[in-house]
Design a protein that fits this description.
alpha/beta; five-stranded mixed β-sheet; 289 residues
Length: 289
């Protein structure tokens, strides 16, 4: 798989964002270019939030060493959620460093049993993105606070919707909020497990007053209130448009697989590459009470 580390950004003295580019192979003729952010926290020990796809380990280790630290200083991996581009290198890093892995119990099955995840959420090229299960050492809870260093306290925020166990992480002293994949990106792939939960999680982010800087897994960092507001408003409006369109077309019985999904994607003029089972599953979640 083609991987590249194209950018690293120091958000604060101890909190760094590492961008890793990768490709999702839809079929031999179609590929989807993606990237994911890994957060590296340089305290007395090193904490990672997410680990990218399979093959990201060396990028993470190289960046740590370029900053004058050693890979064996990694003490903790916090997994924001179970999807393959976030857990892809977790098992390898854990094996090489003997670090502990933290996650929410809502995503336990999919982190510790990737075959089950692939069966229930068949992402194209799944096993190119992650090929090993990761055992969780500690389960974190909503509102739990963890002291990573003398001036780095994180607050765990359970934010279901994108997945059952999705986490947002608030850096209290630095007023930075990492939202992983909880905020839909306008015109990007509709990718979530539960529409109603996602709306609630997004509303929490929109009304939270405890952060100034917004980090996500699939955008560049946002440093100003204007940037943050625009991004959140666009995500909210995109979800509302998706909901309206899904409820217009997901009526009755389909005559062929993905028929309704095709109609929604076509109506919204989104990329035809989004016509796939995981998007169809996201759309069906709009119909749940």
């Amino acid at each position: 798989m083609n991987l590249e580390c194209t950018n690293a950004l120091k958000i604060s003295e101890k909190i760094h964002c590492l961008k890793i580019d990768f490709v999702v192979t839809i079929n031999p003729e179609k590929q989807l270019d993606r990237f994911v952010n890994c957060i590296i926290i340089f305290g007395k020990k090193i904490t990672l939030i997410d680990t990218g796809v399979k093959g990201s380990t060396n990028f993470i280790f190289d960046y740590i060493e370029k900053n004058g630290r050693q890979r064996n200083e990694i003490e903790t991996i916090i997994i924001s959620h179970a999807h393959p581009d976030h857990i892809g290198s977790a098992a390898e890093i854990k094996e090489l460093t003997q670090c502990k892995v933290l996650a929410h119990k809502g995503d336990r099955e999919w982190i510790e049993n990737i075959e089950l995840q692939c069966q229930e959420r068949p992402v194209p090229g799944f096993f190119n993105l992650v090929d090993r299960c990761t055992l969780i050492d500690v389960f974190v809870e909503d509102a739990e606070r963890i002291q990573l260093d003398k001036d780095i306290t994180i607050k765990i925020i359970h934010s279901p919707g994108h997945s059952k166990g999705s986490l947002n992480i608030l850096f209290e002293e630095d007023k930075i909020l990492f939202t992983a994949d909880s905020i839909p990106v306008k015109n990007d792939i509709p990718n979530y497990d539960n529409f109603q939960d996602l709306v609630q999680s997004l509303n929490f982010i929109r009304h939270c007053q405890e952060y100034n800087i917004l980090l996500t897994s699939w955008t560049t960092p946002l440093f100003t209130q204007a940037e943050v507001k625009k991004f959140l408003d666009e995500g909210y409006e995109y979800l509302a448009l998706l909901d309206q369109t899904v409820k217009q077309y997901y009526i009755g019985k389909e005559t062929e697989p993905l028929e309704f999904c095709k109609k929604v994607i076509s109506q919204l003029r989104l990329s035809p590459i989004f016509i796939m089972p995981i998007v169809d599953k996201a759309f069906y979640s709009h119909l749940q009470d």
